[in-house]
């Protein structure tokens, strides 16, 4: 009788709605804990140690963070990442606003037939896209340089010159980033009630006035979402830069195109300075966190909901 009573209590407890809810989110919660939270905590701990992955860990305090301040390679990577972000984010915003207005309102007669084309970069893996662009921008046999030579401009060392390599990575980042964000902008434009535009037309507002006073203010929630997500994505850029530069680029080319994530990858998995790599990851996390918090604090001044 005691066992039967215990079974009844167990099934009664399992039948509670709250328990079923916890069971349903348990797989996700366990995955979040194992693959995200615990590695983050372990990385923070490693940042204060010296460890090569095999020998015993040695406590170094804030030595790794002090070392960052004098590391020219890391500071160059930090500067490259900042330049990449400053160039990519505004370029994406400008392009998606222009294309979004054309595609959302069917301004051009052929837009219905080419709508799927702008989605293609999103279907392509960044590594595959970078490999294709690496071939297209090649100095000797790249299609882009062959076209430039046919126009009488001459070949440009897009990938082999420190003056151009970062801008080539920026171009690929813009090409990859437009697709998804364009979908967000088009959805935002189509969600704006037509009545606002009709009332503005009755009042004699021009197309530019309607865009500046109706479309743009009501698109600020979508723009804010894109701004936050794209800034985080830009600070984490790795795959395209790694493919373009290669595994062992010349020193000048490496300094001109390396990013923060490339730097921490090299320190952790090439030189096996796990502690120093974790310190760089911590700095990256703080940079992204501060910028994101700042965006949320200032969004009340320019984002209009409803």
UniProtKB/TrEMBL annotation:
It comes from the Bacteria. Keywords: Cell membrane, Membrane, Transmembrane, Transmembrane helix, Transport. This is ABC transmembrane type-1 domain-containing protein. It is a multi-pass membrane protein. Pfam families: BPD_transp_1 (PF00528). One of its GO terms (biological process) is transmembrane transport. The chain crosses the membrane at residues 21-48, 82-104, 116-136, 164-189, 218-238, 279-298. It comes from Alkalispirochaeta sphaeroplastigenens. Residues 78-295 form the ABC transmembrane type-1 domain. The keyword Hydrolase does not apply. GO terms for cellular component: plasma membrane. It is found in: Cell membrane. InterPro entries: ABC_transporter_permease, MetI-like, MetI-like_sf. The keyword Metal-binding does not apply. Its main location: membrane.
